[in-house]
Amino acid sequence: MNVLDHVRDMAAAGLHSNVRILSSLLLTMSNNNPELLSPAQKYQLLVYHADAIFHDKEYRNAACKYSMALQQKKVLSKTSKVRTSTGGAASNIQAQSLPSEIEIKYKIAECYTILKLDKDAVAVLDGIPSRQRTPKINMMLANLYRKAGQERSAVTSYKEVLRQCPLALDAIIGLLSLSIKGAEVASMTMDVIQSIPNLDWLSVWIKAYAFIHAGDNQRAINTICSLEKKSLLRDNVDLLVSLADVYFRAGDTKNAILKFEQAQMLDPYLIKGMDVYGYLMAREGHLEDVEVLGGRLFNISDQHAEPWVISGCHSFYSKRYSRALYLGAKAIQLNSNSVQALLLKGAALRNMGRVQEAIIHFREAMRLAPCRLDCYEGLIDCYLASNGIREAMGMANNIYKTLGANAQTLTILATVCLEDPVTQEKAKTLLDKALAQRPDYTKAVVKKAELLSREQKYEEGIVLLRNALANQSDCVLHRMLGDFLVAVNDYQEAMDQYSIALSLDPNDQKSLEGMQKMEKEESPTDATVELDGDDMEGSGEDGDLEGSDSEAAQWADQEQWFGMQ
């Protein structure tokens, strides 16, 4: 047994720090006396050394050492001369027992990916002939291609993964996200479904995710619910998180929160999807719960974007926008594909008056999640904030035509129409259609109430809001009902409505202001009320909150440190 055998055994035993020290010493000895190690032994030792450095998370150094190993492999291929080992015994290492050159290239690409040097990673993997690419190489390439917007190449790589591993479900999701038809994807798994028992659910699972990526939220909900009700898949955390996310996309906040909580109870260490859950809780005014959730997730892992996003949402809805900006930037550093982090940072930038920078972030979120309406809403809000009504109208019409006439798209289009006096009647028609489809859709109710307020139709507005509150309790709806009741001089019930609103969200400044104004003026002389539908967060996304930020200077410095402005 020679020294290299000891290095190999320590590497296999996970003694990486020991491998790093010993291999470094042996490599130095070999450099000073090339006769000590054969080319094959030196190649193997370089790989062990690079692996140990990789384990220490020194990825740039590891990539360099792996590249040195590849250079040594070229030397090895030119000679078959066997050299004596450091122990003096002849070594007879067979070529097939040496680390694979393809595996080394994969490790280099992995280092580059972690370092966010995606182009370098693609260059390394592209250098591997197609026939020699393993499933994990094709999977990495597919993800890199998709991230770079090279959809055709991504599709080819995902399909190659499925050809070799037909149950690679993440590859299936990747194909569906690139608009490949569910039927085509299902056909690639048909043989394995028919040959293995208890896999009949897979075709339904594929159908569910096809609906999700096509933006057909209601059919996605129905399909996932049918899967979740099956005894063998009941209480599956991944399905529950997907169901919660689709409820969120459909604007059903109540059911989204319910399913997220159910998933969290089943898996207390769950991280996936918790950024959306934290956002919804913050938007509903449960800031103490959001703070607890963020702290708990930081204890699980601070290397994921989700806890940073949750803390950022807490700051955003506490009106500390500079801190929210910093936390959103940190989340993007950890995961540049985090849609929720991009939306958080975009909303913070918008509320700080940096609209053009916000637009960049909302557009990137749209590219990553083309079926999420909150991405489009954020961009539309930016256009409206900069008086770009024409751009906002074009975007709203595009959403309406692409995703169809549902309650959400109708409300988005109506929201833009409300900004132009010429299109007020069109806005009313659109809102009526939205409420005919979903009478409980909170954002449509709010926008309709805003329109009725402009027309001073207070009694009609009161009826609308009472009907909406019959089956739900929402801070904004209670506050708006209070405003309408003030307009018709019903001060006592108005006070009750403000109290209910503040019990749901103690941080709702407008409810507090309405209550304080009534307390100061026992007999108001002016019942005219001005409603602002833009402050409504009930089913829209990242709200237009206003307020001072006492931590602006401190967090602005940290943003400069992270270079994410």
From TrEMBL:
Keywords: TPR repeat. It comes from the Eukaryota. The keyword tRNA-binding does not apply. The keyword Ribosomal protein does not apply. Residues 529-549 have a biased composition (Acidic residues). Gene3D superfamilies: Tetratricopeptide repeat domain. This is Anaphase promoting complex subunit 7. It comes from Sphaeramia orbicularis. The lineage of its organism: Eukaryota, Metazoa, Chordata, Craniata, Vertebrata.
